[in-house]
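Protocol step 4 of 5: obtain the predicted structure for the target chain.
Materials: sequence only (see below). No template structures provided, no constraints applied. The aim of this step is simply to have a reference model before the mutagenesis design in step 5. Sequence pasted as it appears in the construct record:
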Amino acid sequence: MENYLSNYNKKIDVTNIKISYNDVGIGKIPILFLHGFPFNKSMWEEQLEFLKDSHRLISIDIRSFGQSLENHLEVSIDLFTNDLIQFMNALGLKKVILCGLSMGGFIALNAVKKHPKRFAALVLCDTQCASDTEEQKAKRMETIQEIEANGISKFTASFLKAVFHEDSLSNKIGLVAKIEADILANSPAVLIGGLKALASRQETCSSLDKIEIPTLIICGREDQVTPLSQSELMHQNIENSILKIIENAGHLSNLEQPEAFNAALLEFLLSEPIISMTNSVKEPNSNLFV
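Step 4 output (structure tokens):
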């Protein structure tokens, strides 16, 4: 076996669909990354590149997004959560450190609530535990109607303004263009399905006090989609959690300020609880080259 794993855009059968994933580096407890809506696994490229020499890192395209196939089922956070567990089973991953941003964070919180023994640690990025208010649900329905009537161009333009810090919009033109392309690569049906999944999700705030694994919470200071106050609420309710605020970042803190984000993530991964846990694992997760 090689001592370095480097599999990009692999596909594996999971619950009647093919999930696309990247799997790089080597390590006893993989870090599994879940992207936000309506992006794909490429949003974690900076983190995979930064950590691949010291950790095993897996990023997946959530059902219907990126290169994971759409099978026209009505999607939900529960379905995405089931896909995650089945994906882990298919790769022989007994436990992972789970990192999710925005919608990925909703899935992560749901997964830890339903399957706590499958996760060694948790990283919640620019996300929240609350469900949509009635007003937020109504706004999502308005967006769905706009997409149905006029396509995804108007949605994409307004979404970009919402997720990026003003400095990024002005000075990180390449990044904004890349994210714009990723959004436009989705079909209207995929965006509509994702919006419905977000609107119908259940709150996980009431279960935060039951999270016993090491938890890092990261949030851009200027996040307007899932404001810092939501991260502060999770920090207050998850015992011994760590909150890191990323300056000059909006909703996409890992992309807007990758150096600061990566530093916060690495510090967490090198903290005593994570190192002790890793050292106690005798064998790496199996099926490294599936």
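Step 4 remarks: The chain has a mean pLDDT of 95. The longest strand covers residues 6-14.
Proceed to step 5.
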